[in-house]
Amino acid sequence: MHQVLKEELPFNEYVINERWKSRLIDINAYKALHTKSLEQLEEFWASIARELEWFKPWDKVLDASNPPFYKWFVGGKLNLSYLALDRHVKTWRKNKLAIEWEGEPVDENGNPTEQRKLTYFDLYREVNRAAYMLKHNFGIRKGDRITLYMPMIPELPIVMLAAWRIGAVTSVVFSGFSAEALAERINDSQSRIVVTVDGFWRRGKVIRLKEIVDQALEKVGTVENVIVYRRLGLKDVPMTEGRDYWWHKVMEGIKANAYVEPEPLESEHPSFILYTSGTTGKPKGIVHDTGGWAVHVYATMKWVFDLREEDIYWCTADIGWVTGHSYVVLGPLMIGATQVIYEGAPDYPQPDRWWAIIERYGVTILYTSPTAIRMFMRYGEEWPRRHDLSTLRIIHSVGEPINPEAWRWAYKVLGNENVAMASTWWMTETGGIVISHTPGLYLIPMKPGTNGLPLPGFDVDVFDDNGKPAPPGVRGYLVIKRPWPGMLHGIWGDPDRYIKTYWSKFPGVFYAGDYAIKDQDGYIWVLGRADEVIKVAGHRLGTYELESALVSHPTVAEAAVVGVPDPIKGEVPIAFVVLKQGVMPSDELRKELRDHVRKTIGPVAEPAHIFFVTKLPKTRSGKIMRRLLKAVATGAPLGDTTTLEDETSVEEAKKAYEELRREIARG
Ligand code: WTA
């Protein structure tokens, strides 16, 4: 069931090296510390929260009087922008580099043509000015939602921190999403403004982002203003009089030393909404608070990333996903780190771009995705060998299972067998890392592909179907048995769905939706999703969204989408499509449907294959049996088919699939 490859999981392969030997701890000693943290859970988290600066201390660490609506650090007041900036500019860190930014374009020698360096003081100044702009020029108040549709440039963290400074709630939409996906998210969050750019670089091409915003706004009623940051200086950017404003024009009128008082926000005040996919229905807006999230992210920055003042940290995730929220924007800045932010594609102009970046800035900590590692594996060792990667001391991955082979490759080729490596498990809903190795604390031996043990303060288990702990080596469902600080605070506007999705499969326990195995040492190995979510190159997509996109095409009657293993992307979606009466299947139509999905959701969602069939396998009550389609596509046994209405539907899917395989074999 391991998503990527059917490699054996190396339960007995223990890895440790010279550099990290001094942090090594016996597995049982680690477990004892973990048990202790759970025994005094509230005091444990309070002791970490005290390391942050609060405007007003909390009255109660955890309010569990109305589960699952838990509240953390109740009565406490704080501000994320203050924690990330003001606190540092009062110290020597004022002049420390916060961000080393690099744009995508390069000159004829392959050197970047655009670089920006921002110190904590620079960032503090810019965030204050942006906060001033939001508050005074656009009238944004505490609790207002603002949608950010921007690429990886410093202005994205700047405007997020500015929003949090005044208590506005951010909703960042990944810049690879389509106009329709953007419109849906703006509508659901009822945002008053959208911040975007004229355009940005992606793999040598200009993406004209503002035009996508304009398309989205045709379907949206709430947006009063659009602020456009001039990233490229494109000509002919359509601007709607009275609604759209250039960032730089507005900023001209704001003094360099503008200061906006950071709003003392209740710990429970929402800081952001982030839309993510689930089993059914449209994407849900996951809501996170201020205080609990800050404490969780702060703790994991220390334990998992072991950040020291001299580190150069690089998290390659896009800020449009949760990893970027927690570990590009809040985490590194709160801890006072120097970090790299890169705008463009990993293999542009050639496959050593990332290695050149690591060498250029002397990156010491890399946080990346298994998909990226597998892609670079395929390009070959010679690309990383051209560069000095000896500065690296930690390489972690996130977003999907890492197969042992990819782990070993990264450990050896990138890490020179002298790094700490973890596959950090968490999700949008958890707000921060939950299972990982902890080089910043004590390090238990690594194993290629495992997630490691739960972090201190997290009560994690693997349950069987009856809600009992699954025995070692047996697949079950990943759960979190007690509340944790960074936990989601519901789904925007839908408390019932919150209870139903996460707290009902096993009453009182958080259900993550992942399959996992605990090995004989208690190490957890997350295997992949147990629901209808697909992880394409780490991006989280719902089969339902893809199916809706397909049936919105005039030729499509019905569609079923499943994820199948892919050697690089982990999983890719494939679609079985029933056409409307009288529509003839053709290669052109196939291409048209793939384009249609790209346009409706975004390029990440494009199905790898589309199969035309005359019917879908369904139960007698009419539910599509995606499980069978998946079995057909992976060659796995069909399992129980007693509820299947019409067996010929599976035969047809099989035939369609085999035909494709023959076609591929023929080239
Ligand atoms: C998967 C990303 C295995 C998992 C931070 C989870 C992982 C989903 C890992 C959440 C990992 C994340 N090993 N699987 N280290 N990290 N996942 O919300 O299926 O985009 O449920 O958050 O990614 O995806 P999301």
Describe the structure in your own words.
The protein is an alpha/beta fold. The protein has two domains: 21-517, ANL, N-terminal domain (Rossmann fold, 3-Layer(aba) Sandwich), CATH 3.40.50; 549-666, ANL, C-terminal domain (GMP Synthetase, Chain A, domain 3). Strands 5-4-17-16-18-19-20 form a seven-stranded mixed beta sheet, with helices on both faces. The protein has a seven-stranded mixed beta sheet with strand order 12-11-8-6-7-14-15, sandwiched between helices. Strand 27 (556-566) and strand 28 (570-579) form a beta hairpin. The longest helix has 19 residues, at 648-666. It is globular and about 70 Å long. The two termini are 29 Å apart. Residues 1-6 have low confidence and may be disordered. The structure holds 5'-O-[(S)-ethoxy(hydroxy)phosphoryl]adenosine (WTA). Residues 276, 321-323, 398-401, 423-428, 451, 512-514, 526, 529, 535, 540 line the site of 5'-O-[(S)-ethoxy(hydroxy)phosphoryl]adenosine. InterPro entries: Ac_CoA_lig (IPR011904), ACAS_N (IPR032387), AMP-bd_C (IPR025110), AMP-bd_C_sf (IPR045851), AMP-binding_CS (IPR020845), AMP-dep_synth/lig_dom (IPR000873), ANL_N_sf (IPR042099). Its cofactor is Mg(2+). It catalyses: 3-hydroxypropanoate + ATP + CoA = 3-hydroxypropanoyl-CoA + AMP + diphosphate; acetate + ATP + CoA = acetyl-CoA + AMP + diphosphate.
Query: What fraction of the residues are assigned to beta strands by DSSP?
Result: 15-25%
* Principal-axis shape: globular
Oligomer: single chain
The ligands found in this model are: 5'-O-[(S)-ethoxy(hydroxy)phosphoryl]adenosine
Number of strands: 29
Total domain units: 2
- In CATH, the topology of the largest domain is named Rossmann fold
Question: Which second-level CATH architecture of the largest domain applies?
Answer: 3-Layer(aba) Sandwich
The chain-level structural class is alpha/beta
Question: Which radius of gyration do the C-alpha atoms yield?
Answer: 24 Å
Number of helices: 19
Neighbour order of strands in the largest sheet: 5-4-17-16-18-19-20
Helical residue percent band:
25-40%
**Unreliable segments of 5+ consecutive residues:** 1-6
Termini separation:
29 Å
For the biggest sheet, the summary is:
7 strands, mixed
Just give the CATH class of the largest domain.
Alpha Beta
- Average pLDDT: 96
